[in-house]
UniProtKB/TrEMBL annotation:
It comes from [Clostridium] cellulosi. The chain crosses the membrane at residues 21-45, 51-75, 95-113, 133-150, 195-213. Residues 30-221 form the Cation efflux protein transmembrane domain. Belongs to the cation diffusion facilitator (CDF) transporter (TC 2.A.4) family. InterPro entries: Cation_efflux, Cation_efflux_CTD, Cation_efflux_CTD_sf, Cation_efflux_TM, Cation_efflux_TMD_sf, CDF_Transporter. Its main location: membrane. This is Cation diffusion facilitator family transporter.
Length: 390
């Protein structure tokens, strides 16, 4: 299967938008063809032998045809360049298409649960024939091949929609095994299990639909970014000259492989600003090209050699370690002279600090603890969230 994917990609960069678009549309076309064949096979057999389980699977294959059509359309839309209304492109169309696919699957699963219940209440015999059985199980290798193709192509081009389709196709294999067992039972027994198997088939369909919906809603709702991408960005910025620390990394997802990131870089305040700006600017361009993202770096000038700052920071260090909900702090500076000084800094907190009251209480506790250590310091704290789940 990997060889087939390589032939489709033709050795080109799978991250390239045009390459991804073409590969996605080819994958959709393959899915349409295979699922149309399976739908016709199973619909004919299910009607002949009067099996609601097999007919349920046939219409599940028909929903997969619709899903493949939606996939083709979504790749076409996602591949459109950015415009005035969508300055970051149309990449999220892939997520939306997967959610539509999930909704189609869920509706079909619900309808066939009702049909299966009706069959249990009013049972009718299922006819067995060897020819019909062979036709039913012949769909299994087709679905397995389709699942493997979707999975390989989805991994190659980083498409969640194709990965979801791979899962859907594999679940169909399990469903088909259950449905075909209805025929086997009917050949050796008068037990009416078709309706119950139809419910089992429908539950598989519903499970697939809800699983896909949950997975594809996550990036639209704003899920935490990939840890590997976070590490590459932070390490890349830290490698730049003059940069002593980084924080406030936020990554926005605008579709598979389409990200915009902002990050704050701590730099010395005593280096000419134009020199530091030149380093930051070149770092932005380098990492944007290497990682295929849009990166914006904000400079935070710090005075780390000042004795007043060092003294205040040592006090804060001794206090912060007693607050496990504080992951880190940054943007540290001291303002004022004389008996009272304002110590200003930001703290990054974990997910246990959520409400405004919790934030205010935390700030007050830290301020009180700092004053107990040294009464000359008054803290002004800004609370940040951790947007990378690191």
């Amino acid at each position: 299967m990997r060889r087939i994917v390589e032939l489709i990609l033709k050795g080109q960069n799978p991250s390239d938008e045009k390459v991804r678009g073409r590969a996605g549309m080819i994958s959709g076309a393959v899915g349409i063809t295979v699922n149309c064949i399976i739908f016709l096979m199973e619909l004919i057999v299910g009607t002949i032998v009067n099996s609601v389980a097999i007919i349920a699977f046939a219409f599940n294959s028909l929903s997969d045809v619709v899903s493949s059509v939606i996939t083709v359309v979504s790749f076409k839309v996602a591949n459109k360049p950015a415009d005035k209304e969508h300055p970051f492109g149309h990449g999220r169309a892939e997520y939306i298409s997967a959610i539509i696919i999930a909704m189609v699957i869920i509706v079909i699963g619900y309808e066939f649960i009702k049909t299966s219940v009706e069959k249990i209440i009013h049972p009718s015999p299922v006819s067995f024939s060897l020819d019909s059985f062979i036709i039913v199980i012949s769909a299994i290798p087709l679905k397995l091949l389709l699942s493997a193709f979707y999975r390989s192509m989805g991994q190659a081009i980083g498409s969640s929609a194709l990965k979801a389709s791979s899962f859907d196709a594999f679940s169909d294999v399990l469903v088909l095994l259950v449905a075909s067992s209805s025929l086997v039972v009917s050949a050796f027994s008068d037990i009416q299990i078709d309706g119950w198997l139809g419910i089992l088939v429908s539950l598989f369909i519903l499970y697939s639909g809800f699983s896909i919906a949950r997975k594809e809603l996550s990036p639209l709702l704003g899920e935490a970014p990939d840890k590997e991408l976070v590490k590459k960005i932070m390490d890349g910025v830290l490698e730049a000259e003059y940069v002593s620390g980084v924080h406030d990394l936020i990554i926005h997802n605008y579709g598979p492989g389409k990200f915009m990131a902002t990050i704050h870089a701590e730099v010395p305040c005593d280096v000419p600003i134009l020199r530091v700006h030149d380093v930051i600017d070149s770092t932005e361009k380098r990492l944007s090209e290497e990682l295929g993202i849009i990166l914006v770096i904000h400079m935070d000038p710090l005075n780390k050699d000042d004795e007043v700052v060092k003294s205040a920071q040592s006090v804060v260090d001794s206090v912060i370690k007693d607050f496990p909900e504080v992951l880190s702090y940054h943007d540290f500076r001291v303002v004022g002279e004389g008996a009272v000084k304002n110590v200003i800094f930001d703290v990054v907190v974990d997910s246990t600090v959520v409400t405004k009251k919790e934030i205010d209480d935390l700030s007050e506790k830290i301020n009180r603890a700092v004053k107990e250590k040294d009464a000359q310091y008054n803290t002004i704290i800004n609370v940040d969230r951790n947007y990378t789940s690191q």
